[in-house]
Design goal:
Layout lengths: L1 H18 L4 H7 L8 E3 L3 H14 L1 E4 L15 E8 L3 E4 H5 L7 E7 L2 E7 L2 E7 L3 E5 L1 H4 L3 E6 L3 E8 L31 E2 L5 H7 E10 L5 E10 L4 E8 L9 H4 L3 H4 L3 E2 H12 L3 E4 L3 H6 L9 E4 L4 H6 L10 H7 L11 H15 L8 H6 L14 H50 L8 H5 L2 E6 L10 E7 L28 E6 L5 E9 L6 E9 L12 E6 L3 E6 L12 E8 L2 E9 L2
Parallel strand pairs: 12-16, 14-15, 16-17
Antiparallel strand pairs: 1-8, 2-3, 3-10, 4-9, 5-8, 5-10, 6-7, 6-9, 11-17, 12-13, 13-14, 18-20, 19-26, 21-22, 23-24, 25-26
C-alpha cells in the first residue's frame, strides 16, 4: 500500500511539471537548438595513444608552445596544450579545465573514452558527440561568450590545444622596401646562379654580404624544417646563431648530420619568431652560401626584397680552383681542402658551415664573377610550378585517410557493379537456356524406331516443313535379298472420311538413311496429297539402286525380331513384274547379309 502511494505521488509531481510551462522539462523540450560550426579531423593513431598514456601518468599537465613533445604536435599554430584525464562520470566545465573563460580557437583531441560537449549561449543549447581517437576544432567566433562543458559517462583522456586569441584589429607594419633596377625570375631558386640586382661598388657589396647556413630536419611530407640557423657578415660578426624549436611535427631529425635531436630543441626559440627575424635580416642583403637551394625552400627568402645571391656551388671562381667546369657539384669539405682550410667534421653545425663559407669566399673574392645577364634572363621561360605548401600533421593525415577511404569506396563500388553485371549476365544466360528448352519441347519428336532399324544402323534425319503444308505418313519397306521380298511399313493412314480429312501439319519430315558411307542421291518428288488440292514436296536421300526391283508378293504375317519383340509386317508383290516408279531402294550391308529398303509414299 505504501509503495502504491509513492508511485501515485511521483506521477502527480510529473503531471504538475508538465503542466507548468516554466518547469525544467518544458524548458529543455522547447528550447532553441544552437548551431555549432565544428570541424572533425583524424590524427595518427600513435598521437591518441600517447595522449592516453601521458594523461594517465600526469592526470593534468600544461605544455607551453616550445615544450610540447614532438609526438603531441599535430598543428603549427601559436598555442599551449592542456592534457587532462577525467576519471569519473560527471559534467566538467571547460572554464575549470582552462582556468579561464574560453575565448580562442580550441582543438579537442580525444584519446580514450567518449562523451559529449555541451555549449550554451543566451539560453540556446547545442552539443557535439565526442568519439575516441578523433579531433574537433571549434573556431574562436564559435567559442566566445559561451558556457561549455564536457559530459562523460566514464573515464575520458583528452588533450586541448588552446590557441592564442586573435586580436580585434590586425595592424600591418609598413616597411620601406628598397627597390632595385633588375627584376629576378622566380626560377633562380632552382638553379645555382649568382647575380646582383643593380650596379654596386666593392665596398657596398661587402656591406651587403651575409654568409648563411642552416641545418634541417624533415616533416611528414619530407619537407625541410629549419632547426639550426647561423649567419655572419663580411667582417665576421655573428648575426644569428639559433637553435629552433619547430611548431610542426618532425618525422626525421637527421642526427647523423648535425647531431640535433628533440631534447636539444625543446625550450629553444620558436620557429615562427625565428623565421620573422630572418626575413627582416635578409632585406637588402646579398646572400652567400654553398648550394642555396635548401635555403630557398626552407627559409622565407623574398627575391623582391634581397639585393642579390652568390652561390659557391655554381660559381666559375670555385670551378677554376677545383680545375673543373662550372656546374659540377663539389662538397664544401672538398673546396675547403683545396684552398688549404680545415674540412668540416662528419657531424657539423650551422655555425661551422657558415664560417667556412665566409673563409672560402674571402679567398676567391678577387676572381669572383657573377652569372651572365643573358643566362639570368633565359630563366624567365623556365616553369618552376608552384611552391610546395606544407600541411599540418592533423590536416595531412585527415586528407590522406579521406583519399584512402575514397579509394576503398570506389573499389567497393566497382566490385559491387561487377558483381551485379555478372549476376545479370548469369540471369540472362539462364533465361536463354529456359527459352531454348521451351523451343526444344515445341519441336517434333519422332516415334521410337523399331529394333530392326536400329540394328541395321538406320538413322533419322529431320527436315523442317512449312507449317501450312499438309503431310501424309511415310511408308518404309525393308527387303531381304536372301528371302522373298518383304516390306515393313509404318501404319497406313486411316481411310478418308469427313472427320479425318488431313489438315495442316506442324510436324517435321523424317527421312531414313543407312549410316554406311555409300553413294547417295537426292530425289525430290512432288505428288498430290489425298483430300487436298495442294501438292507435297519431299526430298529423300537414298542409295542409287544397282538393279531393277524384283517382283514382290503381298503377304501379311507376324515376325519375331531380336530382343524378343514382334513386328507386324505387310508383304506385297507385283504380279505383273512391272517396276514401281514410286519406290526407292536402299541397300544395307551388315556382316555377310544384305538388306534392301524400299521407301514409298502412302496417302
Amino acid at each position: 500500500m505504501y509503495n502504491h502511494f509513492v508511485i501515485i505521488q511521483m506521477n502527480f509531481r510529473k503531471q504538475v511539471e508538465l503542466a507548468n510551462p516554466n518547469s525544467v522539462p518544458n524548458i529543455l523540450r522547447n528550447r532553441d537548438t544552437l548551431s555549432i560550426d565544428a570541424s572533425q579531423y583524424i590524427a595518427p593513431r600513435a598521437f591518441y595513444d600517447i595522449i592516453s598514456v601521458l594523461a594517465k601518468v600526469h592526470s593534468s599537465v600544461t605544455y607551453p608552445l616550445t615544450q610540447i613533445p614532438n609526438k603531441l604536435k599535430v598543428t603549427d599554430e601559436l598555442r599551449r596544450m592542456e592534457l587532462i584525464r577525467l576519471a569519473n562520470p560527471a559534467q566538467y566545465p571547460i572554464k575549470n579545465i582552462l582556468r579561464h573563460d574560453p575565448d580562442s580557437t580550441l582543438y579537442l583531441h580525444i584519446g580514450r573514452g567518449d562523451g559529449e560537449l555541451i555549449i550554451e549561449r543566451d539560453g540556446t543549447f547545442g552539443s557535439i558527440m565526442l568519439a575516441a581517437k578523433c579531433s574537433y576544432k571549434l573556431p574562436q567566433y564559435q567559442v566566445e561568450g559561451t558556457n561549455m562543458a564536457i559530459r562523460t559517462g566514464g573515464q575520458l583522456s583528452l588533450a586541448i590545444d588552446v590557441l592564442e586569441p586573435l586580436p580585434d584589429e590586425i595592424t600591418v607594419p609598413k616597411n620601406d622596401i628598397e627597390e632595385f633596377p633588375m627584376k629576378v625570375p622566380p626560377a633562380v631558386r632552382n638553379f645555382r646562379v649568382s647575380f646582383l640586382r643593380g650596379p654596386m661598388g666593392l665596398e657596398e657589396i661587402r656591406n651587403r654580404l651575409i654568409f648563411i647556413d642552416i641545418e634541417c630536419a624533415h616533416g611528414d611530407e619530407n619537407n625541410p624544417i629549419p632547426i639550426s640557423i647561423a649567419a655572419f657578415d663580411f667582417d665576421g660578426r655573428m648575426l644569428m646563431n639559433d637553435l629552433v624549436c619547430p611548431r610542426q611535427h618532425v618525422a626525421r631529425y637527421g642526427e647523423n648530420i648535425h647531431g640535433l635531436a628533440e631534447d636539444n630543441l625543446l625550450g629553444q626559440r620558436d620557429s615562427a619568431e625565428s623565421m620573422r627575424e630572418i626575413e627582416r635580416m635578409l632585406r637588402g642583403r646579398i646572400i652567400v652560401g654553398h648550394d642555396l637551394h635548401l635555403e630557398h625552400v626552407a627559409l622565407p627568402i623574398r627575391l623582391d626584397q634581397i639585393a642579390g645571391v652568390r652561390d659557391l656551388q655554381g660559381s666559375s671562381a670555385v670551378a677554376t680552383v677545383m680545375r673543373s667546369t662550372p656546374g659540377k657539384s663539389w662538397s664544401l669539405s672538398d673546396v675547403a681542402r683545396k684552398l688549404g682550410f680545415s674540412a668540416q667534421q662528419k657531424i657539423h653545425s650551422a655555425v661551422e658551415d657558415a664560417s667556412l663559407v665566409r673563409k672560402i669566399y674571402l679567398k676567391i673574392e678577387n676572381s669572383w664573377t657573377d652569372t651572365p645577364r643573358e643566362e639570368i634572363e633565359e630563366l624567365w621561360f623556365q616553369d618552376i610550378g608552384t611552391l610546395p605548401t606544407t600541411k599540418t600533421r592533423l590536416v595531412y593525415n585527415t586528407s590522406l585517410r579521406a583519399e584512402l577511404m575514397t579509394k576503398r569506396q570506389y573499389e567497393a563500388k566497382e566490385s559491387k557493379r561487377q558483381k551485379e553485371n555478372e549476376e545479370k549476365k548469369k540471369k540472362e544466360e539462364e533465361t536463354q537456356k529456359e527459352k531454348e528448352k521451351e523451343k526444344e519441347k515445341e519441336k517434333f519428336v519422332p516415334p521410337p524406331m523399331p529394333q530392326e532399324y536400329l540394328e541395321l544402323g538406320v538413322q533419322l534425319q529431320k527436315q523442317l516443313v512449312p507449317q501450312e503444308e499438309p503431310l501424309a505418313s511415310p511408308c518404309i519397306v525393308i527387303m531381304d535379298e536372301s528371302s522373298p521380298p518383304s516390306r515393313y511399313a509404318t501404319p497406313e493412314p486411316m481411310p478418308e472420311s469427313p472427320t479425318n480429312i488431313p489438315g495442316p501439319s506442324t510436324s517435321q519430315r523424317i527421312v531414313i538413311t543407312p549410316s554406311t558411307d555409300t553413294k547417295k542421291r537426292a530425289i525430290k518428288r512432288t505428288t498430290p496429297i489425298f483430300g487436298t488440292t495442294s501438292s507435297d514436296t519431299r526430298t529423300v536421300i537414298a542409295n542409287t539402286p544397282t538393279s531393277n526391283p524384283q517382283p514382290r508378293s503381298s503377304i501379311s504375317q507376324n515376325q519375331t525380331v531380336p530382343g524378343n519383340r514382334q513386328a507386324t509386317t505387310k508383304r506385297t508383290s507385283d504380279l505383273d513384274g512391272s517396276s514401281d516408279d514410286d519406290t526407292i531402294q536402299i541397300t544395307i550391308t551388315k556382316g555377310k547379309k544384305k538388306w534392301c529398303a524400299t521407301l514409298r509414299e502412302s496417302q
